[in-house]
Write a structure and sequence with these properties.
Residues 108-169 are annotated as: Disordered. Homotetramer. This protein is mainly β and 169 residues long. The chain has a domain at 6-112: Nucleic acid-binding proteins (OB fold (Dihydrolipoamide Acetyltransferase, E2P), Beta Barrel), CATH 2.40.50. It is 5% helix and 38% strand. The chain has 1 helix and 8 strands. A hairpin with a 5-residue loop joins strand 2 and strand 3 (27-35).
Length: 169
């Protein structure tokens, strides 16, 4: 979206994601990512932790992607994750009557940080039971209807025309 502030954060989940369904029927996952910068102190030869950033995050299921549900079933407290999304700000009235404003990350993509985790990925199926996107078809096997994929000499010489004779001078 034009004008959105898109950021990527790497950090650890502070608790298990909270999965809930709102009255409209939409599913949302809420969680917090703690990101702590580390710098190397050359004098002591040690890594030092900076001040941690705790960023509240939300992710929603949509008709095409079950992001919140996948987060709820895949991620847990303490896991190191990489999340990308849009910073959003919202205001609300707290139970004590005070007005408050929070900044949170509306997550578009998230996954385990493989530098410190290993993962086994299971693809989701679409409404017809077929996997989304790439289906793992073998490469370099042209389809019958693809003239560009036909071998040379099979009447389909589109990409390799016969060389033209040199002009006579």
């Amino acid at each position: 979206m034009a004008g959105d502030t898109v950021i990527t954060i790497v950090g650890n989940l502070t608790a298990d994601p909270e999965l809930r369904t709102i009255p409209s029927g939409a599913t949302v996952a809420n969680f917090t990512i703690a990101s702590t910068p580390r710098t190397y102190n050359r004098q002591t030869g040690q890594w030092e932790d900076g001040t941690a950033l705790f960023l509240r995050c939300s992710a929603w299921d949509s008709t095409h992607t079950p992001l919140a549900s996948n987060i709820g079933s895949s991620l847990a407290k303490g896991m190191r994750v990489i999340a990308q999304g849009r910073l959003t700000q919202r205001s609300y009235t707290a139970n004590d009557g005070t007005n408050r404003t929070v900044t949170e990350l509306r997550v578009d993509e998230i996954g385990p940080a493989l530098s410190r985790n290993s993962a086994r990925v299971t693809r989701n199926a679409n409404d017809n039971g077929q996997p989304h996107g790439f289906t793992g078809a073998p490469r370099n096997q042209p389809q019958d209807t693809d003239p560009w994929g036909q071998p040379v000499g099979n009447g389909a010489n589109y990409g390799n025309p016969d060389p033209e004779p040199d002009p006579e001078f």
